[in-house]
Structures are given as structure tokens and as C-alpha cells.
Design goal:
Order of helices and strands: HEHEHEHEEHEHHEEEHHHH
CATH topology of the largest domain: Rossmann fold
CATH class of the largest domain: Alpha Beta
Distance between the termini: 64 Å
Largest sheet: 7 strands, mixed
Number of helices: 11
Radius of gyration: 21 Å
Number of domains: 2
Mean pLDDT: 94
Structural class: alpha/beta
Shape: elongated
């Protein structure tokens, strides 16, 4: 029997053995090249002293890479029960270092299963990736339970996370990611790297938390102001923020912002200054 460098069967053999076809309804696109999964795992840095949370491991390509790169322990949350036997083989191979939880990642609090320090590394299912990211960026208490996020997204989403003011990609995700953390794209992956090949390119984003926000303001207020501003991003701020207060122009002037500016023109710092006027 053919084995890979980690002593386990090649992923194509695993998929064939268990009849694992990626399901579009679950946002699945399997990454089978263990050289690529190893490279993604290394983008997360030293894992030897960390618990790693992985969402949507599928047949376990990235799971194997994380363990092979020395992760102290991996907690993998998988909704697709078809993948559990393949993941069980990995757990047997890496005794005591992999815990597989059969659950919906959106409905589970992973804190009960993790010990710090914690890194989150995942090839996120396309249909829940953005929602999970927003949850990780907007916890009730900051700093969050995680130290870093190393996540694969459609490249369009990745560009929104790292976008700068003045660009079309700049928006809510940019501000939420850049207010209390540092984000950068560390890898690009073409469609043909996946099975089945998606219609779009993908990218890996590495996000490192800051111990405190870069600029002072209330998190809930910032989210409310940013949401209102970008919900009508083509409008001037005096119009897009009108639902928040009747004296919106006075508040904009108090923050040093012209009422005729548009949302995509404001920096993260300016949004924080503006939010303080709505607290």
C-alpha cells in the first residue's frame, strides 16, 4: 500500500476508500496536495505549544499537516459524518493529539475543548467562512481566546479583509479585521489546487490579534456605525448615517469628517473617532 511522508495513505486513496465526494451544499472543496497543506500549516508559525482549532477538516489533509508540523493538539470540528472514519484513522496515527467533534461549527462553543495558547487554522467551508470570521473578530471580551487566525477564503473575501481606504474592496470586514488585529495575505491558491476545482481563486489570510485596540472606541458602536455607513456606501455619510441620529452632520464635524465624504474614504482611525460621537 502506498503511504505518504507522514505514514498515512495519500488523500486520493482516502477519498476513494470512503467514497468522499465534496458536497456543494456544505461549501466543500478538498485540498489534496500535502505539500500545499503543509505550507498552509507553516503560515501559522510555531504550533508546538498550541492547541489548534480546525473547522471543516474534510478528509483531513490540513489536519495531517498541522499534526506533522508539530501541533500540540488539534481539535477538528466536522459537520459531514462521511468524513469521520477518515479522521479517525488520523487520530489513531497521532495518538492523543487529535480530537474530532461531529458538530456544526456555527452552533458549537469550542472553548470547552481547547487549552491555550490557541491558534485557529482552517480551509473554511465557503458558505460559513465570513460568518465565522466576523464572530472571531467581534467577541464580547477582547483580547479573544485565539492568538492568530490562518484561514483560507475565496480571494475576493481575502482582499476585503486586508483592503485599504479608497479601494472598492474596503468595507466592514476590513475595519473589523484591522481595528484590533493585523491581517495579511500569505498565500494564493489557484482553482486547480482543489477537488472539485471552484470557479474562483483562493487565498490564505494570516491574522494576528493585538492585545488592545489600535484606536479607542466602543466595539458595538463601531459595528453599528460601520454597518450603516457601508450599507449605503455610494451615498455621502450625511445620508448613509442619517438613521443613527438627526444631527448627523454636527457629529461628523465634531469628529473632523466632512459630511460629503463616503464610507470607503475613511480610515479605521476615522471610523473610531466617528463612533465616539455616537456612543
Amino acid at each position: 500500500m502506498t503511504v505518504s511522508a507522514d505514514g498515512l495513505p495519500p488523500l486520493r486513496d482516502v477519498i476513494s476508500k470512503y467514497g468522499l465526494r465534496a458536497q456543494k451544499s456544505l461549501g466543500q472543496n478538498f485540498l489534496l496536495d500535502l505539500n500545499l497543506t503543509g505550507k498552509i500549516a507553516r503560515q501559522a508559525g510555531d504550533l508546538s505549544n498550541c492547541d489548534v482549532l480546525e473547522i471543516g477538516p474534510g478528509p483531513g489533509g490540513l489536519t495531517r499537516a498541522l499534526l506533522d508540523e508539530g501541533a500540540r493538539r488539534v481539535v477538528a470540528i466536522e459537520r459531514d459524518e462521511r468524513c469521520l472514519p477518515a479522521l479517525a484513522e488520523i487520530a489513531d496515527h497521532y495518538t492523543g493529539r487529535l480530537k474530532v467533534i461531529s458538530a456544526d461549527a456555527l452552533a458549537l462553543n469550542p472553548n470547552d475543548h481547547l487549552n491555550g495558547p490557541i491558534k485557529i487554522v482552517a480551509n473554511l467551508p465557503y458558505n460559513i467562512g465570513t460568518e465565522l470570521l466576523v464572530r472571531w473578530l467581534t467577541p464580547t471580551i477582547w483580547p479573544p481566546y485565539w492568538d492568530s487566525l490562518t484561514l483560507m477564503f475565496q480571494r475576493e473575501v481575502a482582499m476585503r479583509i486586508v483592503a485599504q481606504p479608497g479601494s472598492k474592496a474596503y468595507g466592514r470586514l476590513s475595519i473589523l479585521a484591522q481595528w484590533r488585529s493585523d491581517a495579511k495575505i500569505v498565500m494564493d491558491l489557484p482553482p486547480q489546487a482543489f477537488t472539485p476545482a471552484p470557479k474562483v481563486s483562493s487565498a490564505v489570510v494570516h491574522i494576528t490579534k493585538c492585545d488592545k485596540p489600535k484606536f479607542d472606541c466602543n466595539a458595538k458602536t463601531l459595528e453599528r456605525v460601520v454597518a450603516a455607513a457601508f450599507n449605503q456606501r455610494r451615498k455621502m455619510l450625511r445620508a448613509s448615517l442619517k438613521s443613527l441620529a438627526s444631527d448627523v452632520e454636527d457629529r461628523l464635524h465634531a469628529a473632523g469628517i466632512e459630511p460629503t465624504e463616503r464610507a470607503e474614504q475613511l480610515s479605521v482611525q476615522q471610523f473610531c473617532m466617528l463612533s465616539k460621537q455616537f456612543e
